[in-house]
Amino acid sequence: MKEKTNPVGFIFMILLSAVFLFPIAIVFMNSFKTKFSIMGSPFRLPNKETFAGFDNYITGITAAGIGGAFVRSVFITVLSVFALVLLCSMTAWYIMRDTSRLSRIIYKLFLFSMIVPFQMVMYTMTYVASGLHLNNPVGIIAVYLGFGSGLSVFMLGGFVKSIPEELEEAAEIDGCTPLRTFFSIVFPILKPTAVTVAILNAMWIWNDYLLPYLILGNRYKTLPVAIQISMQGAYGSVNWGGFMAMLVLAILPIIIFYLFSQKYIIEGVIAGAVKG
Amino acid sequence: MKRNLHPYFPLFVLPTLLAFIISFLIPFAMGIYLSFCKFTTVANASWTGLENYRRIFSDSSFTNALWFTVKFTVVSVITVNIFAFLLALALTKGLRGTNVFRTIFFMPNLIGGIVLGYIWNLIINGVLGFFGTDITYKAAYGFWGLVILTNWQLIGYMMVIYIAGLQNIPRDITEAAEIDGASRWQIIWRITIPMVMPSVTICTFLTLTNSFKLFDQNLALTAGAPGKETAMLALDIYNTFYGRPGWQGAGQAKAVIFFIIAAAIAFIQLRLTEGKAAKER
After folding, report:
1. Is residue B129 less than 8 Å (CB to CB) from chain A?
2. Model's pTM, two decimal places?
3. Do A23 and B219 touch (CB under 8 A)?
4. B186: Cβ contacts below 8 Å, ≥ 6 apart
5. Residue B223: which domain range?
């Protein structure tokens, strides 16, 4: 389509973009101001007295243990997404190809889990997880695998259905074991959906607050938990400078990731929305 | 060809299934059971029948949260969808820079709820500060703060779905209408909107479930203040579990009601979208 030049519409869109970017810009700007010049005057630009340079980042990272929380968030997100994509692909393929009653029941249970809100299971899930000693950064990966498997198996399973089974049968006649068939034939075909599933789960786990807070608590803070805890019950004594730096550290990786792979992210989020 | 995959069950299914049983199936079953019990820890539960359910409907924090959630959900579903649809219309006119605008409008959707809540807490308090007040002063401030936050978060997301729907409308239909002398409004009302109804359904339910289950944003923006007036259902359930000793059973009963409403919404959505698909066939 030829691009039209409609100056009024164009200027309006630029203004609207500014409105959309404004809240993020405010946080970035305030992260460079001294801690007493943020609350009360968040819209004022930093001047000679209120400019803090990178001080907030240094105090934020050292004082509130944000560095550790950041590394922990990366660790949990990466490994959970890896486990979800790999294991749910295998599970989805198996229960779609196996016609037994058990497989069909398992699939129905996965579908059912998608409509259950987290609050329904949060109390008992926390109890079970701590009873099984899953209340640490490695154990929580199993919890994410279990709680995220519904949507992942559903999306991957939907795609498996569209792969012609003859393809796999041909490979097996040629002597492939089902294991090899899966990894050298099925998984490469599943890739686009696997990318979608990875993006949806990564966004969920990176931003997730309540589940890691209940299961890991204060001992192993993730980034959202560290942000919430540093605000809770400390209204008078909050270091607003360090707090702004924390918010930036939580936003920045997602925005950078987004700018490099926005096509996949937008497509992935829509695919997840339309199906889920 | 009949394939026997069963020897591969332990490798392919068991790891996921075990995790699923541990973190979903068992907690879910226990949750249903505990909603009929009195307990302070899972170990000392004793059966009390429907007592918890009777208790929550005479609990003003629950009925208040339910009402607040319904009001909030209705307002955000309407506002988000109107703004998202208008933006999608504007961005399918072949305007210069369309892709850049789309990228910007979608961006807030990627930020986590806790962070979103504190960003808007800073901004809304900054604005209200000019009038010598803040967001915890009146429930109405918290309500509209949540509406603004949700709009900012979801408009770009819904807009992208509407854009996909709008791009599916064959151009010859609108062109034919133009030749027949239809006005711009007639084309929007008689052609565009009926043709994007599937997207309208998707977006309505997406905003509906998102608003209804809102927790992180609610916690970070107002945490229910003033009092518990701006606590939505999810936050009220959380507060009942962890903030009111002796009310764990009631918290679980609230969670079951919450689940039933969410399931009903999902069921209606399934019915609507399946019915439409059947009609199209």
Report:
1. yes
2. 0.92
3. no
4. B177
5. 64-231
Q: What domains, with CATH codes, occur in chain A?
A: 7-59 (no CATH), 65-232 (1.10.3720.10)
Closest CA to B147 of B128, B166, B172, B120: B120
Separation CA B220–CA B112 (nearest Å): 11
Alpha helices in chain B (DSSP H): 9-12, 14-20, 26-34, 51-57, 60-91, 98-106, 113-129, 139-167, 171-179, 184-187, 193-195, 197-212, 216-221, 233-243, 248-280
Dump pLDDT digits (tens) for B140-151. Answer: 999 999 999 999
Q: How far apart are CA A135 and CA A23, in angstroms?
A: 35
Report whether A197 contacts A205 (CB < 8 A). Answer: no
Please list every residue in chain B whose beta carbon sits closer than 8 Å to the beta carbon of residue A258: 107, 110
Cβ separation A41–B126 shorter than 8 A: yes
**Nearby residues of B244 by Cβ (< 8 Å), 6 or more positions away:** B250, B251
Q: Is residue B102 part of a domain?
A: yes
- B95 lies within 8 A of chain A by CB: yes
Chain B neighbors of A233, CB-CB under 8 A: none
Residues 6+ apart with CB under 8 A from A32: A46, A51, A52, A53, A54, A56
Q: Is residue B171 part of a domain?
A: yes
CB contact under 8 A, A94 and B8: yes
User: Using CA atoms, how far apart are residues A104 and B64, in angstroms rounded to an integer?
Assistant: 41
Residue B104 lies in a domain: yes
Q: Does B114 contact A228 at a Cβ distance shorter than 8 Å?
A: yes
The answer to whether residue B119 sits within a structural domain is yes
Burial of residue B220 (CB within 10 Å: 0-12, 13-18, 19+) is: buried
CATH number of the domain to which B155 belongs: 1.10.3720.10
Give the tokens for residue B223.
């945490």
- Report, in this order, helix, strand and coil percent for chain A, each rounded to 5: 75, 0, 25
Average pLDDT over residues A112-139: 95
Q: Across the 281 residues of chain B, what is the mean pLDDT of every consecutive 10-residue run?
A: 80 96 97 94 89 91 95 97 94 87 93 94 91 90 96 95 91 89 88 90 93 95 89 96 91 96 92 67 43
